[in-house]
Design brief:
The chain is an alpha+beta fold. Helix content is about 45%, strand content about 20%. The protein contains nine helices and eight strands. Strands 5-4-3-8-7-6 form a six-stranded antiparallel sheet, sandwiched between helices. A two-stranded antiparallel sheet has the order 1-2. A hairpin with a 6-residue loop joins strand 1 and strand 2. Helix 1 packs across helix 3 and helix 2 crosses helix 3.
Length: about 250
């Protein structure tokens, strides 16, 4: 790479970082708003936004055409030494919930047509659900997946259903009916849907603005986390989700 190419690469990286810095004080921004903030023309900003979106640093709301920070920021924040990133802010509440219900607690966010575990606190039981942070999972099965899709826009839901990787064994009409039921009751359950011997209950986590941020789940061995036990735990999960949501803008 010659000097001129190197200079252009550095300038592009500099501009991309300037775009990310726009979100320090704003949760969502349009292309026009970003272009104004970084003082660049829209075509240049559009190309940079495409790159940031492809890499997962930004996501675009299909309803509003506004951009917001993506899952890569969550993944990077897991290694921050500070105690002020979202995953760490919510961690004490997740530990508290784990101690209340005795099972593994996980926090998931949606990225395109999958969900990603961005934080987890494992059960203290000898036999427990192992929950590696950063794991990518499908949206077609699982309590957390259905919560994330149920509270997404109709456009996002259709995009998820249209994914070529959608399992042929899962009826889309029945799946949509499940989503409607989840929205009515405010939670989702799963019993050996994705993994034999595993069960989970999940609820949506909304920010103070009422926006869906993540899915909060309790998971464990299906012979211990029965439906009856899920219902016993549900009030604790809902209170924890409300408390956690109050911590987020």
């Amino acid at each position: 790479m010659d000097a001129s190419e190197n200079k252009m690469t550095v300038r592009a990286a500099d501009r991309a970082l300037d775009i990310l810095l726009c979100f320090i004080d704003e949760k969502e921004l349009t292309l026009t708003e970003i272009a104004r903030k970084v003082e660049l023309n829209k075509s240049t900003v559009y190309r940079l936004l495409g790159s940031l979106e492809n890499k997962g640093f930004l996501t675009r709301n299909l309803d509003t055409e506004k951009y917001q920070l993506g899952f890569r920021i969550w993944q990077l924040s897991a290694n921050l030494p500070q105690e002020d990133d979202p995953a760490k802010i919510l961690l004490p509440e997740m530990i508290r919930l784990r101690d209340q219900v005795g099972e593994t607690i996980s926090l998931y966010v949606r990225n395109e047509n999958e969900r990603i575990r961005v934080q987890a606190v494992e059960s203290n039981e000898t036999i427990r659900r192992v929950a590696p942070i950063g794991a990518h999972l499908p949206l077609s099965v699982g309590a957390s997946s259905k919560v994330l899709v149920a509270y997404s826009s109709p456009e996002v839901q259709q995009k998820v259903l249209a994914d070529p990787s959608w399992p042929s064994s899962i009826d889309k009409k029945a799946y949509m009916e499940q989503l409607e039921e989840i929205r009515k009751r405010g939670y989702a359950t799963s019993y050996e849907e994705r993994e034999k011997g595993a069960a989970a209950v999940a609820v949506p986590l909304f920010s103070r603005r009422g926006e869906l941020v993540a899915a909060l789940s309790v998971s464990g061995p299906s012979n211990r986390l029965t439906l009856e036990r899920m219902m016993e735990n549900l009030p604790y999960v809902m209170v924890a989700a409300k408390r956690m949501g109050s911590m987020l803008k």
